[in-house]
Amino acid sequence: MRVEYLIRETGTNLWRNVWLTVAAVLTVFVCLALFGVSILVGKGADSLTSQWKGGIEFIIFMKPAATPDEDTAIRKVLDESGSEVKSYKYLDQAAAYEEFKKLFADKQELIDSISQNVLPPSYRVVPVDNDADAIAQLGKQFEDKPGVYEVRYASETLRNLESLTNLVRIGLLAAALILLAVAVLLILNTTFTAMMSRRREIEVMKLVGATNWFIRIPYMLEGLVHGLVGAAGAAGVLVGVNKWLFPKVQRINLFEYFRVTSGEVWSTSLMLLAIGCLVGVIGSTFAVWRYLDV
């Protein structure tokens, strides 16, 4: 089977049903764009709340130059607060630097300008009581301790924000799945319509000995084009969102640590291209195999 034949036949099918083609491509584009954005929002939300995972309610940041005795004194108070402190985790400067590099993975200049010696070690504390007043009272006793730079609390706003981003992700994902089903049906219908409009040609091809696969492949490629073009457009949206929208979001103080790396954008884009191709092939293959006896 010649490549020129496949290109010509696929192009003919696309052009004969141009409006159905446009509708199918746009549907794939919208559903995959929503799906991709929901993934990036999730990754950004994870970076935004990464310091507060596992029930951490406040963080004791030590001064970079804190002495071993000052550090031991803080650890002793935490150990002796067993009725109030459920658990705690210590991050030394090396661990803090690794976390910093992960958080700002797409900003190599910033990483190169910071050494681990300037980053504060910290204690991340999970209290027994999640009541805001109890947490404030527990954290307050560390604020004036020697060697302590700052005690930072997980605000109620941050917790609400985490819940909100989860709802947004679920909403976008649900809409994307619904539209994905619509896209498969549209591609199926477009392929079916193309085959119906050329039914006599198909019958003649069968009479002269054309194999089923010789007839099927151009129509399956038509579905592949629908999915691939729509997915490519959705990938472009992800690049644009990360380049122009997310930086504006990060200027809001509450979203300062909302980060999506360029690597995450490209990996998500590649996933969308794969899904788009799969959706196109599934829709067109189902039409070819089930709707016409070829």
Automatic annotation (TrEMBL):
One GO term of the biological process aspect: cell division
Record flagged with keyword Hydrolase: no
Keywords attached to this entry: Cell cycle, Cell division, Cell membrane, Membrane, Transmembrane, Transmembrane helix
Membrane-spanning intervals of the chain: 18-41, 167-188, 224-245, 265-289
Keyword flag Cell cycle: yes
Membrane topology label: Multi-pass membrane protein
InterPro entries: ABC3_permease_C (IPR003838), FtsX (IPR004513), FtsX_ECD (IPR040690)
Protein family according to the UniProt entry: Belongs to the ABC-4 integral membrane protein family. FtsX subfamily.
Domain ABC3 transporter permease C-terminal: 175-291
Record's protein name: Cell division protein FtsX
Location in or out of the cell: Cell membrane
Coiled coil: none
Domain FtsX extracellular: 57-151
Pfam families recorded: FtsX, FtsX_ECD
Chief location: membrane
Organism lineage string: unclassified sequences, metagenomes, ecological metagenomes
GO cellular component: plasma membrane
